[in-house]
Design goal:
The protein has 449 residues and is of the alpha/beta class. The protein is 37% helix and 20% strand. A hairpin with a 5-residue loop joins strand 14 and strand 15. Helix 8 packs across helix 11 and helix 13 packs antiparallel against helix 14.
Length: 449
């Protein structure tokens, strides 16, 4: 695979109005993707664009629109809509490409461009690289003649359509009547659709993080700051709390006592519920190398498997499609329900948890701890140059650590996909051993880099 200049593991991302998150790069993305799809055949081609609530979205969106339309592609814009909603609408409107303008859980200072194919899945590496290779062409190459320029329309009912799709994922015959739900929408893309969905399913909704002003997305709120949700749960005496991130593709849950429930516990809860109903496909769950050993042991004890992939929801999704799984995700709260969505969906994942809560009649605190987490330690080590993982010292430290953890835990050492960091993670039943193993490997990495 070629060296990526623009695209990282999750589209293009960076500080707003500095390279690569500039109007020029956005224009080039629209032009390149437009040229790529327009060359396929002569029918009308369509791009759809959604965004979160960042101020810089107003700058990126028109640049993308200009690129697509000057290549001859029609465009439909949605305004603020969760990432999974954009993926769904790409498929249901038979578009060639879907674009989400968001930097997910980052602050308003950053923004990003994620691309979806006509099937609603994130674009493959091959197509991304093709687009990237075309992005540096001359800006005036292969432009559409004046009578063949694309047309643009705003789709006003995209949020309503997403609400209906989300509601349809909640089990028929169940209602949220009598349940008080606190939700933190991170002042992000889900600020309207999430409270509306919960309300229409019968819940009493106490919403925070629903007043976006372009600068407050993820600011001390949302899934990356669960303390705000925990405080809201206590303040409103809610039965459960739900926190989304900026583009609403991940979720963190709080029980009625304000205790945080991460993605691993959510996957465990949903997996066992689905297995009991005969709804779980593939004989298990797909998660990443970061998921806790406790999750693996719990699933194994129910004769279910845990398949691990590299970090990144696109790798989880790939494995799910290959192996016919319908449940997967990440510890961070990216949960993929393949029967309902083609990417992580925070709101739909929360609805599955709410369904278990309603059916069981138990308080959330009883459901929240599906397994005891195994002590886990993660250290990020910054390095300046070279490839520390290829040095003899680091290799020796890793081999030694693996020998010490053999049979009682596991070690994971990997470079970050987005910055000059080596992530050193270990877990095992003996917290002291885990701590010392991580310290030794981290020291070796520091010495090398």
């Amino acid at each position: 695979m070629g060296e990526r200049r623009y695209f990282g593991t999750d589209g293009i991302r960076g500080r707003a109005n500095t390279h690569p998150m500039t109007p020029e790069v956005a224009l080039r993305v629209g032009l390149a993707a437009g040229r790529l799809f327009m060359s396929a055949d002569s029918r009308r081609h369509l791009a759809v664009i959604g965004k979160d609530t960042r101020l810089s979205g107003y700058m990126i969106e028109p640049a993308l629109v200009a690129g697509f339309t000057s290549a001859g592609m029609d465009v439909r814009t949605f305004g603020p809509l969760p990432t999974p909603g954009v993926a769904m609408m790409t498929r249901s409107m038979r578009a060639d490409i879907g674009v989400m303008i968001s930097a997910s859980h980052n602050s308003f200072l950053d923004n990003g461009i994620k691309l979806f194919g006509p099937d609603g899945y994130k674009l493959s590496d091959t197509v991304e690289l093709k687009i990237e290779s075309m992005m540096d062409q001359a800006l005036d190459a292969d432009l559409a003649p004046p009578d063949a320029l694309g047309r643009v329309k705003r789709i006003d009912d995209s949020q309503a359509r997403y609400v209906e799709i989300a509601k349809a994922s909640f089990p028929k015959g169940l209602s949220l009547q009598g349940l008080r739900v606190a939700i933190d929408c991170a002042n992000g893309a889900g600020y309207r659709v999430a409270p509306t969905t919960l309300y229409e399913l019968g819940a009493e909704v106490c919403a925070v993080g629903v007043e976006p002003n372009g600068l407050n997305i993820n600011a001390d709120c949302g899934s990356t700051h669960p303390e705000t949700l925990a405080e809201a749960v206590k303040r409103y005496r809610a039965d459960i709390g739900i926190a989304l991130d900026g583009d609403a593709d991940r979720v963190i849950i709080c029980d009625e006592k304000g205790q945080v429930v991460d993605g691993d516990q959510i996957m465990a809860l949903v997996a066992l519920d689905w297995a009991k109903r005969g709804m779980l496909k593939g004989g298990g769950v797909v998660a990443t190398v970061m998921s806790n050993l406790g999750l693996e042991r719990l699933l194994n004890s129910h004769d279910l498997s845990l398949e691990r992939t590299k970090v990144g929801d696109r790798y989880v999704m790939e494995r799910m499609r290959e192996g016919g799984f319908n449940l997967g995700g990440e510890q961070s709260g990216h949960i993929i329900l393949h029967d309902h969505a083609t990417t992580g969906d925070g709101l739909m994942s929360a609805l599955q948890v709410l369904a278990v809560l309603v059916e069981s009649g138990k308080p959330m605190s009883e459901l929240a701890r599906q397994f005891e987490t195994v002590p886990q330690k993660l250290e990020n080590v910054r390095y300046t140059s070279g490839k520390p993982l290829e040095t003899a010292g680091v290799k020796a430290a890793i081999a030694d650590a693996e020998a010490r953890l053999a049979g009682v835990g596991r070690l994971l050492v990997r470079p970050s996909g987005t910055e000059k960091l080596i992530r050193v993670m270990a877990e095992g039943d003996d917290a002291k051993l885990v701590k010392s193993v991580v310290a030794d490997v981290a020291a070796a990495v520091k010495a090398a880099g």
